[in-house]
Amino acid sequence: MNDDYIVPNFVEDLLTASNNGLNGISDALSTLLHTPVIITDSLYHILSMSQFEYKNDSLQVMVEPSPYQEDPMLHECFLVTKNEKESALRCIISFDQKVEGFLFAVGNPQKMETSLLKLATSLCSMNIKKNVEIVKEKKRYKDAFLYNLLYGNMKEKADIVSYGHLWRWDFEEPMTVIVFSIEEYNMYTDDKNLIEALFYVVKKALTQHQFTPILLKKRNEVTVIFPTVTQSDNQKEDLTQLIHFILNQTKDTQLEDRVRCGIGRTYENPVEIFRSYQEAKVAYELGLLLNISLPFFEDLGLERILYKHDLQDLKEFYFHVLGRIEALDVGKELMITIEQLAKNQFDLKRTSDAMFIHKNTLRYRIKKIEEVLQQKLDDVETRLNISAALKIKQLHKV
């Protein structure tokens, strides 16, 4: 037999170990080198480690100038753990000319067997590439499933529950849809990168709070399908705290103060999740218009009816109720007075206090308003019509 074709034992060991993924590779390499081995993604989040004790989920790495001028994929570095620094050799894991991770052999870099490390790095590259393709394939089907769910294209509960099990989601539980969206989003600017940041923040927050994220991102929006275990009052309070936490987290990123949200109602049947999604989007829009920081659809009253109604009808109603005031009130004094009256439930004292005017001044203006409208403001039906007209003005910028 020609000795040139004999495969060294360490190659066989590593190839066999690679069948067990990154854990198999790190274990086998650590045994062959008699030194700790760590494999991370491109952001130094630990994917696998052998013979190395470290409680954090990511590494702090200080890269030194490389003495391996002939091989730009190898670098000496220090791993910072607690108050100590440990020498290591860092090998870049890449495919398609893109860095996808790193392999660290802890110890004196000068004593490392680089050919062994290169082989292990190549196996890691193949393994990560395979995992990335699997994730992409899963994600493609997952996104299609979520789209169908949110747009009401799935009609059978059993089908939804069955598909959900593929990703360990329990659609037997009641679900609430939450929409997070970026204000004044422009996809032709750097804003297109913000959606990834928003997705990351939401996913991380849900994971930190022990929830399995069911997320979909599109354009300027991240949608959360949130499992609502109980219908108790505390459930809403807990959900409010979680959403506040997420919004506060986004303020510490490049998203700053541009994220708003809307929350739909809870549905026990997953076939109706699309309703919660539509409600969450309406709540989001109304939250912007009415300046509500945390708009729950269930808390919106007349607004959600007026928001969906035919705009021309609403405009006609508005001008029927308040058109005369707008036409005659050149200085807008009477319109401001009507708005303050409605805002303060037509209470004279509260309204005059809010406007910093004397009660008699307010009474004089009310008399003028009644003359113009030819209606009495102490009439319940008149008050209702005025309140509805002012809501229309606020919602539709009439």
Brief write-up:
The chain has about 400 residues and is of the alpha+beta class. It contains 13 helices and 10 strands.
Task: Please describe what this structure looks like.
With 398 residues, the chain is an alpha+beta fold. It is built from 13 helices and 10 strands. The chain has helices at 9-18, 21-33, 114-150, 157-166, 194-208, 233-251, 273-290, 302-308, 311-328, 333-343, 348-355, 359-373, 380-396; strands at 37-41, 46-50, 60-63, 74-81, 84-95, 98-106, 175-182, 215-218, 221-227, 259-267. The strands form 2 sheets. It has a 6-stranded antiparallel β-sheet. Strands 8-9-7-10 form a 4-stranded antiparallel β-sheet, sandwiched between helices. Strand 8 and strand 9 form a beta hairpin. The model has no long low-confidence stretch (mean pLDDT 86).
Output the keywords.
13 helices, alpha+beta, 6-stranded antiparallel beta sheet, 398 residues, 4-stranded antiparallel beta sheet
